[in-house]
Amino acid sequence: MPTQTVWITGASSGIGEALAARFARDGTNLVLSARRENELKRVADRCTDAGLDRDQILILPLDVTDWDALPGAVQTVLDTFGTIDLLVNNAGVSQRSLCKDTDMAVYRKLMDVDVMGQIALTKAVLPHMLERRDGHIAVTASVAGKVGVPQRTGYCAAKHAVMGFFDALRAEVEDDGIHVSTIVPGFIRTDISRNALAADGKAFGKVDDDIAGGMDVDECAEVVFNALKARKREIPVGKGKEMAALWVKRIAPEVLFKLTKARN
Ligand code: NAI
Questions:
Q1: Which of 155, 166, 204, 225 is the catalytic position?
Q2: 139: which strand partners?
Q3: Could you tell me the distance, in angstroms and rounded to a whole number, from the CA of residue 214 to the centre of ligand 1?
Q4: Per-residue pLDDT for the chain (264 aa), expressed as one digit of tens each?
Q5: 3-class secondary structure, 52
Q6: CATH number of the domain encompassing residue 16
Q7: 147 in ligand 1 pocket by Cβ < 6 Å?
Q8: With the C-alpha atoms ordered 142, 146, 148, 154, is the resulting torsion angle positive or negative?
């Protein structure tokens, strides 16, 4: 089998970084994208430490909200590696603020990064995959894309939106040979709460208890890596009670609504 090319956004930290390190051990070509080039270089070093050749790594800084730059970025990847076999739309930002306090600009930013950015990059990559009648597109959604929880009205709205978009996209393109996976993490120990937006748009700046008690990020990456290899359509990953919320929402929504209110 020819060497595969995997493009990961949000690769400068957390789940994206851990996933890059896991794919590095698999010998795939890697495209590492996020906004901070110096952090991407650090992740690239981690990938070479894991055994990947340096010329199998493309550091491609980008901001997923800069739609105009995305077609050029796709071309750069194709010029470098020839194909894009798997795109992992993982870049994202969370929220820690009550609706009543939250600036509208915060809602717009959550939608721009967590929804529109994923759609824009996916649309830029799709023609290449449709032409080859082969490819795999994943998105890091969230349990917050299935369940509404306090302090995250905008984040839950955004993650529900990407779940809907990628489930619908799958129905459109699966018969064209393109696989679509939605990754549904619970609490994973990363900088997600530290980087989350507070009511005024500033970083929340703290690791909250949910995240501190979450699954180890490399353990998460191992689960996601194996599920992506198996081309699973939906990939729940987590170890805490939040994972039970996925099925409680389906079979007993009234119970779930009481439980989430109790978290307020
Ligand atoms: P993180 O804060 O460590 O990583 C977020 C990544 O996205 C970073 O690389 C950041 O630079 C990048 N990013 C943010 N805005 C960007 C933009 N405009 N353009 C390009 N890159 C941008 O947090 P984590 O946990 O690794 O988050 C990764 C994904 O996992 C996110 O989509 C998040 O919503 C999702 N997630 C995380 C959970 C957790 O408990 N850690 C739970 C459920 C979903």
A1: 155
A2: 89, 182
A3: 15
A4: 778 999 999 999 999 999 999 999 999 999 999 999 999 999 999 999 999 999 999 999 999 999 999 999 999 999 999 999 999 999 999 999 999 999 999 999 999 999 999 999 999 999 999 999 999 999 999 999 999 999 999 999 999 999 999 999 999 999 999 999 999 999 999 999 999 999 999 999 999 999 999 999 999 999 999 999 999 999 999 999 999 999 999 999 999 999 999 988
A5: coil
A6: 3.40.50.720
A7: no
A8: positive
Query: Which residues span the domain enclosing 195?
Result: 5-261
The C-alpha R_g of the chain, in whole angstroms, comes to 18
- Phi, psi values for residue 124, rounded to 5°: -70, -30
Query: Which of 7, 9, 13 has the most ligand 1 atoms within 8 A of CB, as the residue to mutate?
Result: 13
- Residue of 7, 15, 122 to test ligand 1 pocket, by largest number of atoms within 8 Å of CB: 15
Residue nearest to atom 19 of ligand 1 (CA): 63
Outline where 4-116 has alpha helix (H): 14-25, 37-49, 70-81, 104-111
What is the identity of the amino acid at 248?
A: V
> Total domain count for the chain?
1
Q: Give pTM, 2 decimals.
A: 0.98
Hey, whose CA ends up nearest to atom 39 of ligand 1?
A: 188
DSSP β-bridge partners for residue 95 = 197
The DSSP-derived string for 165-180 is HHHHHHHHHGGGTEEE
CA of 114 to the centre of ligand 1 (A): 9
Does residue 107 have an active-site annotation?
Answer: no
Q: Which of 80, 62, 69 is nearest to 6 (CA)?
A: 80
